[in-house]
Amino acid sequence: MSFDFDEIDAVINARSLAIVGASGKPQKFGSLFTASQLIYGFDGPVYLVNPGETEIMGRKAYPDLKSLPQPPELVCITIPAHRCMAVLRECAEVGVKGVIIMASGFRETGEGGEALEKEAVRLARASGFRIIGPNCFGVYNPRNRLTLLPGYDFSTSPGKVAFISQSGGFSVHVGRLCRGLGIDFSAIVSYGNGADLDESDFLLYFAHDPRTETIAAYLEGVKDGRRFLDALREAASRKTVILWKVGKSEPSRRAVISHTGSLAGSYAVWKGVMRQCGVIEASGVDEICDVLLALKHLGRNPGRRLMLCGGGGGLGTYAADLAEEERLEVPPLEGESWARLREVLDQPGAAVGNPLDIGAPLIPLPLFEASLREAANFPHADMLLFDMALNFAYGLGGEEALEQAMDILLRIKEKSGKPLVMVLYSRAEGLEDLAFEELLRRFKWKLLQGGIPVYPSISRALRAISLVNK
Amino acid sequence: MSFDFDEIDAVINARSLAIVGASGKPQKFGSLFTASQLIYGFDGPVYLVNPGETEIMGRKAYPDLKSLPQPPELVCITIPAHRCMAVLRECAEVGVKGVIIMASGFRETGEGGEALEKEAVRLARASGFRIIGPNCFGVYNPRNRLTLLPGYDFSTSPGKVAFISQSGGFSVHVGRLCRGLGIDFSAIVSYGNGADLDESDFLLYFAHDPRTETIAAYLEGVKDGRRFLDALREAASRKTVILWKVGKSEPSRRAVISHTGSLAGSYAVWKGVMRQCGVIEASGVDEICDVLLALKHLGRNPGRRLMLCGGGGGLGTYAADLAEEERLEVPPLEGESWARLREVLDQPGAAVGNPLDIGAPLIPLPLFEASLREAANFPHADMLLFDMALNFAYGLGGEEALEQAMDILLRIKEKSGKPLVMVLYSRAEGLEDLAFEELLRRFKWKLLQGGIPVYPSISRALRAISLVNK
Fold it and tell me: Are the C-beta atoms of residues B260 and B114 closer than 8 Å to each other?
């Protein structure tokens, strides 16, 4: 399919940057964006451009692009829409590879804005540079340390996931949450109205980008339906693709038009296409992150047969109901597997079966290890899922025992060779529980680093497992 | 319907307590239970009974019930099943009003346990005392300061919600989460196998309890289907009833039998009955708490018409899709309401409509206040829902501006007289974001105290609003 890999690659991997509208004034997007690039540490020269300033955040400020010591490969424009064309003409004059236009006030506001947007694209095409946006938060790329509008605290490790988003807010949200989940990106692109480079271009780019294995996308609508379908098919044949499509309802379609000036299209058509191409359909930022986490640790199609474990009988009854809703299987524990667990797990309140109730959120550690090891060995399950009420377990064993329990979980995962999924929550969310929250996050990070995906609820864990099996 | 209010009332409001199997040894349920009662501060004499000890946690220990200075009204038995009958005979001898049997090892383990359970009930009925359990975590009652197995940190304020649960773990989980949400209880009863007092008794009790306005229940199965249906109808005609029923799937039904020895019954029948009686069906601990929060601040049937607000276009498009899934309405903003908001909200990136995009997660405060005030005045909406990305808003305004934004939200709720629902999340959950988590929890508590329900995601908020409208 027709798209220019090298042109897009040059924008995303730009080696020099100018920020037009850079500012030191707090509460301005221009200030937040400038600070983000400087804190995150763009790997190359960063030129701050503002005709009204001589110094911004301790750095020299230039009046315009022509005054820079060298033409920047990438220009980020953070000034209002009506002043953008003048800057784009300067871009054409000095010669740049790409421009990110952050301002809103284009197609999404009606006819005048649409004309302005078309004019900008015409100029870019005539002058040989590409535009991302307008109405966007830019690009996050850990390799050249370019980041999104408020992405100063994003992960610095390159990864294999690309996220494409029409919403700037969601691109930041996904980036931040994923940092806490140990999921790293090849890039995140917030492309807003997609005036020049659009969803099809980025889909194709990441489909062919050797650094990217998984592509997630938040879409409101598409510019060219036929081209997009072809791009989606091509991307899905090369990579795992996750799609979050909004505009299913009438009020949402209204909002889509006033947000990015897109036409949402018929959801039934979308749904059919996604199914046909083997695209994972997700909904909401949390679900996108949950699916990325499952893909990272379980891979695609890890199997639907679960061995459900918990310390407390209610957990298993509820989990089994949810599993059925998510079309997952909970095969009965029978024969030798049953007999061995029965022998090992001599604990009051325990119930041997699938679901398995070990009797309490934390039991004596040798028993804990032996039981979970046997559970992991159950040959008719593709993975083990353990639901732990951490707060309650803490009351039974204290911090040290819990620390050891985490080591046991990591050992079981390692030795059994079977995926282990953890559900870990604190059971309390008041101000007075903050010390506990710290413990929870520490444990979560430890498990994540050891290859165990951690979810905050059984329903989110099961949904994610179901989705990556589609 | 036939049930004895006074007998149940006497057990739940007991004025003296003996703990048989009290222990100071950590990692024992007997120790955790004893510590819980002492820390939470039972309002009356607490007698610790253990023939092997003379002192437990700095208090005198008694060898048996007969040695106590007075017969306790309530006896909690935390020793294994096979030793319970001897204690029950002592209870009969000294004369008590109620017994809570915490141990498992009864009906849920098969024939032998079932016989033991029946024997216990026969003795209790012959001797004039009632049994809660076995296989349970007991009773939480903030008035006499009786608490659940690990309920030492529960709220000390009496409230109007009763929670009945066959699962001990879920009873603790609901209690702790609700403390962080400012939801208080008349009582929580974990009744396990329900050998004597069962779901029907407690439903009827709380239906007639003048302190209780809302009854939530986690049920695995029922002992007497006919009696339960009558009890449910009676309860639902007097109070708001929320039911979480498990055992919908085959693996869950297996787990139900080995957990509390209950028969789950046909889910289709349950579903029909719940609809018929106007019972709210919920699923999962989070959803139970979400519904209780909505009931507290919005009441029953607050209306389905939403005015959706957020700072960022994606929020509204997504929220509108979810609203449709939850059968909620997002009426278009038209006429005078539209014109007034259009005049007030002169902010780049803002989109005036329903959903309303104020342009950024935080905008200059006078604009923020004026816009939300107008939005709250939209006459075709029953409530205002505001989705705030706190972490991003913090980047734009800092802590002081956010503090003022919270005051503005409280003021708008107060002055408009229209319910306001907040969605508040931090956008980051790493260890390094803990300071931010503290801010989030402080703001959440402030809003909750001011009558604004706060949800961690738009999907949970909308689901709760939908459920209380059923």
Answer: no
Residues 213-242 of B with CB under 8 A from A: 218, 220
| Nearest of B274, B369, B353 to residue B320 by alpha carbon | B353
Q: Identify the residue among A179, A317, A394 best suited for mutation to test binding to B, counting B beta carbons within 10 A and taking the highest.
A: A317
Output phi, psi for B100, to 5 deg.
-110, 120
Considering all CA atoms of chain B, what is the largest pairwise distance in Å, rounded to the nearest integer?
80
Q: How many CB atoms lie within 10 A of CB B95?
A: 13
CA distance A181 to B234: 48
Q: How many CB pairs under 8 A join A and B?
A: 278
Contacts of B357 (CB under 8 A, 6+ apart): A255, A258, A259, B310, B311, B312, B313, B315, B316, B349, B350, B351
Joined tokens for residue B170: 């879920």
Q: Is A254 exposed, middle or buried (0-12, 13-18, 19+ CB in 10 A)?
A: buried
Position A295 confidence tier, pLDDT thresholds 50, 70, 90: very high
Going by their DSSP bridges, the two strands B185-190 and B240-245 should be labelled as unpaired
Q: Any CB–CB contact under 8 A between A463 and chain B?
A: no
Residue that is written with structure tokens 């929580």 in the block: B188
**Quick check: bond before A134 cis, omega within 30?**
yes
Residue A27: pLDDT above 80?
no
Residue B221 has pLDDT above 90, yes or no: no
Return the residue of A nearest to B260 by Cα. Answer: A313
Q: Does A433 sit within 8 Å of B434, measured CB to CB?
A: no
User: What is the pLDDT averaged over residues A367-387?
Assistant: 96
Mean pLDDT of chain B: 94
Would you place residue A255 in the very low, low, confident or very high pLDDT band (cuts 50, 70, 90)? Answer: confident
CB under 8 Å to B135, separation ≥6 — which residues? Answer: A349, B101, B102, B103, B104, B105, B106, B108, B168, B192, B193, B260
Going by C-alpha positions, the residue among A285, A70, A323, A302 that lies closest to residue A180 is A285
- Which helix (H) or strand (E) segment holds residue A35: the answer is helix A29-40
